[in-house]
Design brief:
By secondary structure, this protein is of the alpha+beta class. It folds into two domains: 61 residues, 434 Repressor (Amino-terminal Domain), CATH 1.10.260; 122 residues, Umud Fragment, subunit A, CATH 2.10.109. The chain is built from four helices and eight strands. The protein has an eight-stranded mixed beta sheet. Strand 6 and strand 7 form a beta hairpin. It is elongated. The two termini are 30 Å apart. About 8% of the residues have low confidence.
């Protein structure tokens, strides 16, 4: 997708590395966005425009045309932690007090919340400190999808498998057990995005 990131960046006298540092991504990612080899999503528009001090529409190829601003970006509150480990190590993700952080996702949906991952039972796909975005209205189980589940004592994140019905860890170490649901198991919501902590 053609855009004006490079043009606007250069008017500020910035190099790609300067913009990357300000946005919080790699210089290579900025290069891909500028050359159109990476898609300029709503999330990237929302991250880059304020840093450059321009409206999102100014980054698009046809300039300041505000009609082209896509309304699909959503600011999702990170409300708590979710344990990627044993239930007893978990915290309650539905405690909406003390929201102090949020994350942008590239679609509009008002029934979402974010959780920071603690523990390493899912470290094959999510490192500790990553964020998962959960749709709390999507509680129907589908094979090979990720869910935040509760056993009445705490919550955890796991991969659902349908045959036999179970919730599996995705751990590099293999030290975590598969969870076979019982009458106390409740699905809090389906994980629809995982934003990986790269540290």
């Amino acid at each position: 997708m053609e855009n004006r990131i490079k043009e606007i960046r250069e008017t500020k006298g910035w190099k790609q590395a300067d913009l990357a540092s300000a946005v919080g991504c790699s210089q290579g990612q900025i290069n891909k966005l500028e050359t159109g080899t990476a898609r300029l999503s709503d999330v990237w528009l929302a991250r880059i425009a304020p840093v450059l001090g321009v409206p999102q529409g100014a980054l698009l190829a046809d300039g300041d045309c505000f009609d082209n601003i896509r309304p699909n970006v959503n600011n999702v509150p990170i409300i708590d932690y979710v344990q990627a480990g044993k239930f007893t190590d978990s915290m309650n993700p539905i405690a909406l007090e003390g929201i102090s952080d949020s994350v942008l996702v590239d679609f509009r949906h008002d029934r979402l919340f974010g959780l920071k991952v603690r523990g390493n039972s899912m470290d094959r796909i999510l490192k500790e400190g990553s964020v998962v975005v959960v749709d709390y209205t999507d509680t129907d189980l589908h094979d090979r999808k990720y869910y935040v589940i509760s056993n009445g004592e705490g919550v955890s994140i796991k991969l659902y498998r349908a045959n036999p019905i179970r919730f599996e860890p995705e751990s590099i170490s293999g030290q975590f057990d598969t969870i076979f649901p019982d009458q106390n198991t409740r699905v809090i919501g389906r994980v629809i995005r995982g934003l990986i902590n790269m540290e």
